[in-house]
Amino acid sequence: MSIRSSTPPSNTLPDESLEPDATPVAVKRWLAHIVPATAIIFILWLPFGFALTGLIEEWGILGLFVKHGIFFISDTSSPLPLHALRPLTILPQAVAFWLDNNSFFFWHVLLILALLIKGSSVSYIIEKLTSSSKLGIIACALVIIYPADTMQLSFRSLHINWALSITLLGSAVFLHALSLNRKSHALMLSIVASALLSSACFMYEASLLLACIPALFLFIRDGMLSALIQIKQKLLEHAIWVAGTIIYVAYALHTAPLVSSYQTSVVGPNLLASLKITYTKLFSIGLLRSTLGGWFDAMRITKQEFSSYGYVIAASIIFFFIIAAILRLDSKPKKADLKQSTRFNCRLAIAGLTLILFGYFPFLISPSHLLISQRTFLFATPGAALLLLAFISTGYRFSKPITNIVFGFFFIIGVSFQLYQFHHYIEISRKQATVLNEITEKFDGNIENKTLLILDHGNQLNYIWMFINEGLTGSLSFLYNKPISDIQVCHMPSKYWQHSDSLGRKGRCVENAENWTFEYPTPVSGPGFPASEQPASLIIPKTSIVTVEIGKESEDTQSGRTMPKSQGVVVERRDAIESARNSQTRFVRFEDAVVNDKFDWTFGKWWSMELPTHGTGWREAEWDIGSFYHHPSAWKIDKHANLAFEFKPGSNVVYELKGRFTLFAEPNAQSNMVIKLNGKILPIQWSENGEFEAQIDDGVLKNGGNNLEFDSPTNDTYFGLSARLEGIHIKRQQ
Questions:
Q1: Could you tell me the pTM of the whole model?
Q2: Residue 209 has what DSSP assignment?
Q3: Contact in structure between 410 and 391 (CB atoms under 8 Å)
Q4: 91-96: Cβ within 8 A, 24+ apart
Q5: What CATH number matches the domain at 596-732, 3.40.190.10, 2.60.120.260, 3.40.50.40, 2.40.10.220?
Q6: What is the percentage of the chain residues whose pLDDT exceeds 70?
Q7: 173-185: per-residue pLDDT in tens?
Q8: Which of 62, 291, 352, 527 has the smallest number of CB atoms closer than 10 Å to its CB?
Q9: Do residues 83 and 90 lie in contact, with contact meaning Cβ atoms separated by under 8 Å?
Q10: What is the Cα–Cα distance from 519 to 502, expressed in whole angstroms?
């Protein structure tokens, strides 16, 4: 099962096809590809189990399934026409829901299976390319643990992971087809591979550019000229392979004029104009993050976020023993094992760089995607893994022990990065589950064409990571197994209405004896932005409202209504969410899991892994992207804003508050800024660069929940903004 060159290769590799492919040998070969990927996935899932639930789009998808019934294709006539250019994008989620519509169990199974296919396919390709089982295993590990992307381990990326995995699987199948002597078998497998590639494109269009993998494989193995000759000699097979992408392109060209697609909304009116502005980001962000930036963050996360390293080290040692056992069982003689030529490794590096650029290129058409590292690096990861593999392969020519140590280092920090990513999303999932649990304890689901008004005393709802827009309607529709679409949210006691205008500003909730009035944000303007209009207020009689209060420290009569026990499906779904909320992380402990007498808040500690804002009066987090350090901040968009946090103060201790505002939209915002902690005004001392500090006297901080308030004017001629906060830090005064 190897690829046979039609011309003499530029470097001599062992021809494994000379050995009969006996069944026991074949089983060993496939185990060598599957077992390492399985071991890594087991390492990642073991501490957390199946605790992860929905986060953002997942809830909206579940809401669509509840409202319209399950559907597997998102074409122009489906309930999801926005994604008609990705008709298979809903397929993995639909299959998971079809298999079990009361929990996220099969979402986990499908994510695990996608990672297994991804790792095993890469292992197969590299083992056939290098005739080295060890390099295949290393490539398998790298493509799963590579730390550039920050969305691999969430269900938001389920369809993207599957698209990438199917692309790699199709590439492996096609490369095997090229090795077959019997023409009919080669053509049949080429058709299968092309169908896989086409399916991946129909699921996520970024798969298109990875159709170059087989050609790059031939280039790596035999050089440019020989690769071109081989493509010409097997032109029909390659034409069938490329046909998979042509079919998708034809579909996209036909469908694009028929629908207002997601792609059109992110690209903007002029594709070429966007690329002229963004093309440099292909290197300054895409290439830099893929090669160095991801590992830089992984090292810092490993150093800063883990309370202990016992699990990571023990898991890594077990994985290396598994590798040793697999290699020992591999009885095939490999004269060229780990002895690739310098020219071969150079071509491997060039191919890796090419795949990185091709994998990241599709995101250049969307400026907003350049500000995040979620999903944008998944398709660049195979190329990045190849590039690093080229260096590792070169290292084995000089010193196997040192190179093994180097790979061990990369493995440990890569696994640490993925564990922290998993932990990050599960912590958000638990916060969401806590909110959903409280709502279901107080709301029986009987809406009867009324509006559900949620008074959120915890000031958490309606941020991106806490049920923004369709997230809340979708999650409640899922939990109650019926459409619940008319929901209003007010943060309390500030009574900010969590309806955002185009600038992210919130409105006001006004209560009187008979009605609730929801006032839209007041008109503002800004440079290049004409004055906005304020729609008429939304007035809803109290007789048409079901009110639920959440996030109160002391509960009273509000908890009178409970979930009816007779509704089996509803109870099962609520129990699944409750189980996720009560799940415990095992074996590994992270620094942010401990409440103590030190508090550090930024709107995201690591690039594109934002933290849910526990407060009100803030716009969503923004990132200033640097070469290696990326800084989050958020605009204060209301005169009164607050941040809530947990603290455990010591007795008879004076603390200090420090923070920094990076920009002020209102000329007098700094001088007029008033900061209160639990109602007590703090004396502020300002520095020229927007930094501030204040002393916190003993007794001001409370054991448990604390509230930090910021009062300052907004500028209605500059988008209604006030000041942009980078972060705050509270610790014992030195």
A1: 0.93
A2: G
A3: no
A4: 91/159, 91/162, 91/203, 92/158, 92/159, 92/162, 92/203, 93/58, 93/61, 93/155, 93/158, 93/159, 94/65, 94/70, 96/158
A5: 2.60.120.260
A6: 93
A7: 999 999 999 999 9
A8: 527
A9: yes
A10: 15
